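The records we work with from here on pair a chain with its fold. Taken together, the tokens spell out the fold as the letters spell out the chain. The record below shows the convention in full.
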Amino acid sequence: MFRGTYTALVTPFRDGKLDEASLERLIRAQIKAGVDGVVPVGTTGESPTLSYEEHIRVVELTVRYVAGRIKVIAGTGANSTDEAIYLTVAAEKAGAGGSLQVAPYYNKPTQEGLYQHFRAVARATRLPLILYSIPGRCGVEIGVETTARLARDCRNVVGIKEAGGNADRVSQLRAACPSRFVVLSGDDSLTLPFMAVGAAGVISVATNVIPREVARMVRDFRAGRLSSAQRLHAKYYPVFKDLFLETNPAPVKAALAMMGVIRDELRLPLVPMSAKNRERLQKTLHSCGVRRQSP
């Protein structure tokens, strides 16, 4: 169901408010570049700092701007099960085609707690759900057996975004879960290694900046054009890495501002990149041929 390249969209701000015009331009560029879908208001979209009203508004706008041309997977996870259900039901009403469900962060539930949390969300919606395991930011990993249990018990739990940095887990997930269940890379630099052992694509931060290039890399690999995919990986690997010089999404927002796409504006407690890292990122973008976009 969800294979290929999906962009974890940033949420543009202007003077503290949602910048709807910049969001539309960003989405239009993604569609033109050939990505398979977009993921609004995930953690790259600074979802923890958005009000419920803003969160739902971004999903509604994304569905409107996409207009059925690509898929929309709304980020509606939370560390409160009630909040995750509320946002997921709202995204379904707004017309999203799926939901990304991050592991509850900070409260560190047990594996049974994770199972009950995701099962409750799955029962509240007909949307297909993609789990999101990123232990480095959530403090807890969605276990392989927990994932397989959810895939067996909840027909609308259809995949997982795997951001634990371990290709071996992809093999474990593929062995434990039904064939219909998809694994998507959550790390741009690991997309090709993950796909080599069974991942179906990527939910990407880098595609905010280089959507055409990443989408081509994924398509080339899936079509058996391994040498071409490897060349693209090698060329843009510095971009993949330097977009994480500081906490995401500060670097990708800085890059997009350098390209003239959005303002370099975040919400506290996130702040713009340091001058030293900004200079390094700018040099990397230039050396990799990433240029300012035309208005």
Notes: The chain is about 45% helix and 15% strand. The beta strands are 4-8, 13-14, 17-18, 37-39, 71-75, 98-102, 129-133, 157-162, 182-185, 201-204. The first helix runs from residue 20 to 33.
